[in-house]
């Protein structure tokens, strides 16, 4: 059996704790630290759970908020995947999918912007 892990993105909570309730207030603070993102990119960063995150952005956020990466990203244990005895591979995608669906974890469609 293999362990299935996920994560929670807690940027919105950290911003609220710092008294920032508008994503536009984050833009100049990021730019001061050399991170240049459009308003829509900053909004998505706050409102959605990122699948990939640049480490410069992560470090800028921790500096702005005075927190650690552990405060922004929290590991979530999604359970264990069953091994298929016949093939020796991880269990069917149905068992992993069932865990993901039961916890309402859904992938977000990618959006390409230029």
TrEMBL record:
Domain called HTH cro/C1-type: residue spans: 10-74
Composition bias, Basic residues: 103-114
Region (Disordered): 82-114
Origin superkingdom: Bacteria
Classification via InterPro entries: Cro/C1-type_HTH
Biased composition regions of type Low complexity, renumbered to the chain: 88-98
The name this protein goes by in its record: Helix-turn-helix domain-containing protein
Originating organism: Arthrobacter flavus
